[in-house]
Design brief:
Uridine Diphospho-n-acetylenolpyruvylglucosamine Reductase, domain 2; Enolase-like, domain 1; alpha+beta; globular; 33% helix; 266 residues; 4-stranded antiparallel beta sheet; 14 strands; 5-stranded antiparallel beta sheet
Amino acid sequence: MYEFNYQRASSVADAAKKLGTGEDARLLAGGQTLIAAMKLRLANPTDLIDLSGIAELRGIKADKDGITVGAITTHAEVAASKDIQQHIPALADLAESIGDPMVRNMGTIGGSIANNDPAADYPAALVGLGATVKTNQRQITADDFFTGMFMTALEPGEIIESIHFPKPKRAAYMKFSNPASRYAIVGTFVADTGNGVRVAVTGAGACVFRVLQMEKTLSAKFAPDAVANIDVAADDLNADMHASAEYRAHLVSVMAKRAVEKAVAG
């Protein structure tokens, strides 16, 4: 690991100020990806700005419209939240499926979506539920937030403060996970929302994406058999030692059917 300057931010404004002073400053939330990358010398920031002491970035609040989750709220806190379990149980289930207990107790929702690993779980929840990301500068819809592999719409100096999830009528997330890392080889989030049905897929492509044909079919009939025979093109999907593009395409439909079954069962 290279030398770097460690700075602990006291507020979002303080973090933004510190972020602008370093030659290559990076924000540190749970550190589950960044610290590992630094140990492998794949990342070499000059400054680490620690967000863990900023109380305004932590916590879960429920209101009549949905759930707001602070950026440095951990996966374990999301999974254990009574409000989330009551109003969006699919989100609690998703958080519980991430990594192992150490990862869930250290990793944060804001750090996960800012990193936008193509096999991460949260992007499917944000896009599937039609969530909104609030930063220190603006609000960004989930559909616009994730732009490519490890890429987001965040601008330099922009810091995620919270994510707002609308309450769905029903929703579920199912994934075929890597048995070692528990990352999603394919994960499908299906939600029947106030603005229609949304189907979001992670792990299969370079970035989370929606399956519009499934959304259209499920809008007419929200049942497992509605998506059972819908084929997803393998042309632009990931292929690696874990699964071919064709296998991932098949898994999208399988996981979608299972997610609908789970959502219908309640």
